[in-house]
Design a protein that fits this description.
CATH architecture of the largest domain: Orthogonal Bundle
CATH topology of the largest domain: Hypothetical protein af1432
Distance between the termini: 32 Å
Strand content: 5-15%
Radius of gyration: 25 Å
Structural class: mainly alpha
Number of helices: 13
Largest sheet: 3 strands, antiparallel
Oligomer: single chain
Low-confidence stretches: 35-39
Mean pLDDT: 82
Helix content: 55-70%
Order of helices and strands: HEHHEEHHHEEHHHHHHEEH
Length: 319
């Protein structure tokens, strides 16, 4: 009798908890307006006429080589009329190359020494812009007392993308979601917002590191005097360390909400189809599985088993 009542109480508590959690998440999502952004690894630089292509290439290709060496960007000059393609995985470098080319073409003097001078000048201007973007972001979000190095890193996020989603937009969105969710739960929204903005700071370091972005981000936040709760939230948002503060699961949930919403992230069609196919193949490799379907864009796997080979107990273990 007592065991039955205990089970009933536990079930009821679970149901209420699930309902409450759904309500908080839905209210949080509904209260935030998200922007949609698409980033690429290629920038198209438009020209007024195809004659300028010859100037950009230079005698025996010396100008184009100087540009590629100074910016670290590949310049693709092909049959595309009145356009040059700038190819690089680093959007910051692409932007420096685009602005430098714009200045060189407008000026008309294109030679290796001038290219180096213009690229250096543009790089310094972009650094100033990065700082401005960072400062504007923290002012917009009402975050105070952030170390200037962290402000600069927030600005650098503007030129990074994560699965096609602009990193600064993603971090701002996560920060707003964190603040709303913390308010719904009666916690400190300012602390949660700060942790949400800084959660991906490890993706924009100045030097390469062997650490994962979550652990590197936590190390940077600690170095620049952030609250231990924020440091733990950054380190734990991909379950690499144990969550020690209540805001840590909030940051993890809001990061997932921002990345998983429709239209947030973009995948190349072939990659997407391959991933779905791999999921189905993986499920089919288990004994007793008759059919497998990946649905909901690969977030759910529907598996049909042969009843004579898989018992009820076995199906629990299989799932």
């Amino acid at each position: 009798m007592a065991i039955g009542m205990q089970q009933e109480i536990i079930d009821e508590a679970k149901q209420k908890a699930n309902k409450e959690a759904r309500k908080i998440i839905i209210q949080t999502i509904q209260r935030t307006a998200a922007e949609q952004a698409i980033e690429n690894s290629i920038t198209v630089f438009n020209l007024e006429s195809d004659e300028i292509k010859g100037q950009i290439i230079g005698r025996e290709g010396r100008n184009i080589r100087a540009l590629e060496a100074a910016t670290g960007v590949d310049l693709i000059v092909d049959d595309t009329p009145e356009a040059i393609l700038l190819s690089c995985f680093d959007p910051l470098r692409r932007e420096i190359a685009r602005l430098s080319l714009q200045r060189l073409v407008a000026d008309g003097r294109i030679h290796p020494a001038r290219i180096e001078e213009v690229v250096e000048k543009t790089r310094r201007q972009i650094e100033e812009q990065v700082m401005e973007v960072g400062e504007r972001t923290v002012i917009d979000l009402g975050i105070h007392g952030l170390h200037k190095e962290l402000v600069r890193m927030v600005g650098r996020m503007r030129y990074r993308s994560s699965y096609g989603q602009n990193l600064l937009m993603h971090s701002r969105e996560t920060a707003n979601l964190c603040a709303l969710m913390a308010s719904e739960l009666g916690m400190n929204p300012k602390l949660a917002k700060r942790a949400g903005l800084l959660h991906d700071i490890g993706k924009v370091p100045d030097e390469e590191s062997e650490l994962s972005h979550a652990l590197l981000g936590a190390k940077l936040a600690e170095k620049y005097g952030e609250n231990p709760a924020i440091v733990n939230a950054i380190a734990a948002h991909h379950d690499e360390v144990e969550m020690q503060y209540v805001i840590s699961p909030i940051v993890q949930a809001c990061d997932a909400i921002s990345g998983a919403r429709p239209g947030a992230r973009r995948e190349i069609m072939q990659q997407y189809l391959q991933r779905i196919k791999d999921l189905e193949t993986l499920a089919m490799s288990y004994q007793g599985v008759e059919k497998a379907y990946a649905i909901q864009a690969g977030r759910e796997l529907r598996v049909i088993v042969e009843s004579d080979k898989v018992s009820d107990q076995g199906s629990d273990k299989l799932s």
